[in-house]
Amino acid sequence: MRSDLEMIDEWVQPNIRVLDLACGPGELLHHLIQNKQVKGYGLEIGPDDLNTCIEKGIPVLEQNIDEGLQNFDDQSFDLVLMTHALQQFRRPDLLIDEMLRIGKECIITFPNFGHWRSRLHLALKGRMPVSDFLPYNWYDTPNIHFFTFQDFERLCREKDIKILRWAAVDGQLKDHWWIRSMPNLFSETAIFHISR
Amino acid sequence: MPDVIPADSVGIVTPQIAQFDTPLALSCGQTLSSYQLIYETYGTLNQSASNAILICHALSGDHHAAGYHAMSDTKTGWWDTAIGPGKAIDTDKFFVIALNNLGGCCGSTGPTSINPETGQRWEASFPIVTVEDWVESQARLADLLGIQTFAAIVGGSLGGMQVLEWSIRFPTRLKSAVIVASAPKLSTQNIAFNEVARQSIRRDPDFFDGNYIDNNSVPTNGLGLARMLGHITYLSDDAMGAKFGRQMRHDSYQYNYGIEFEVESYLRYQGEAFTKRFDANTYMLMTKALDYFDPASQTNGDLSAVLSRAQCEFLLVSFTTDWRFSPERSEEIVNALVKAGKQVSYAKIEAAEGHDAFLFPIPRYMAVLNTFLTRVANSLTTEVK
Prior knowledge:
The structure holds two protein chains of two kinds.
Chain A: H1 4-11, E1 17-21, H2 27-36, E2 39-44, H3 47-56, E3 60-62, E4 77-83, H4 92-102, E5 103-111, H5 116-125, H6 149-158, E6 162-169, H7 177-181, H8 183-186, E7 189-195
Parallel strand pairs in A: 1-2, 1-4, 2-3, 4-5
Antiparallel strand pairs in A: 5-7, 6-7
Chain B: E1 16-20, E2 24-25, E3 31-32, E4 35-42, E5 52-56, E6 83-84, E7 89-90, E8 95-99, H1 131-144, E9 152-156, H2 158-169, E10 176-180, H3 188-202, H4 220-234, H5 237-244, H6 262-277, H7 280-292, H8 303-307, E11 313-319, H9 327-339, E12 344-349, H10 363-384
Parallel strand pairs in B: 5-8, 5-9, 6-7, 9-10, 10-11, 11-12
Antiparallel strand pairs in B: 1-4, 2-3, 4-8
Helix pairs in contact in B: 1-2, 3-4, 3-7, 4-6
């Protein structure tokens, strides 16, 4: 049983250039800088998260991702990361294109809306699911796109994006064999490692 | 006029003067055979001389960055909001140096000084100095004070340009660079504003081609006008609107060219007050230093190439309503540093004050500065242990 961070850590080569989009307080980036000696930068717009990154010495840039990433050159990073944020941006499909333009590879994690509890919630209660993991009401949620493990796979297929590997974990961000066997039904968080 | 010195003030400070007799070759081709720099220090230099911070001033700044010169002073130093015990630039942790740049009019050698070779005031004959010349002279001051490596060099606006130049020219002499509301070079519009400011001074009949002191004259109209123009560009439309709106001097329009709106009165006052404390030749020279600065010209316009020489870590800060040195200009530096693989963080602070925001104690701005410098201070203590 490994956590999502451990898995991502295992997938990341040492000494590479990493861009972490919506890095939050920089937990993953800090880990990769310490353990993999990556040259990393985070993008973030939350003042408290920015300050936390500065406090830890994590290079962080205040930039609104929805306003574009044109300032980054083609293939200027080895890896572009985005954990638990894709669902918050206006056009996830275009954002993935941008991520693959800037980075040779990308790792994206997102909440899987196809999880059985979400399905049950909607099916039985007839209302949008609110859970510990997605603790928002429909009107105040920063998550403006809901999609499933399968939806993401399908988008990759449509865009000719290679899925290098994937993982699926539960609400505690741990993996289990039953999640791996039916990720669309059992994973709460999906993790995809993709490239062109 | 402090009755009591506030606990977070550096208190009463006394400027010092450093004399340099090693000739300084300037960018313009001329050489200054000797010169002096006036400076102030706050806090205590540690034993390894590793905790020094250099403050680089902007267009009209000077060496008096914090504290008071006397109990009778009505004003503190220009960046007292940021420098002091427990403040963002914490003088309990750092030894802070602020100087008046060469060409200034507050005690360092400049147009109002006596040229030792002629025995006359320099006035118009004072050579134009550049950001590069300033940094060179600041490095000599650091040598004199026994500082090999600064913990940080900090500056806003034109001061930020000096910090950027430090990182390129003396990469091993600073651990960190804090560049606030600055730019890697002036925009065309910025140069245009500077030219209008200079022309307003030069066309003043009291300017006498720069030799006005010799002619017992002061180009107050021209300098005042230049400052009025500058002042407008340092404020945001919103900040001016919030401060004055269409507030009027009288109850009704007077239909003449006297003061109708309060903003007119404010600008006239600012212009006039400036002429009492600032020298017109220095003002012109400082605007030229701004215009000429363009470190990327050394590398065919490639900013990241020239910044690849830097070794320090960087903090860049911009302000949302600053249109004289807009956030996009700071971001040019940030992007070039990222491209060059340098350690950089960047904060875009929500502020209403326009370019002037860099002098205001805006809480988030002060917090970012303090967080960054606290980590710098902590890294010094770990090294000592």
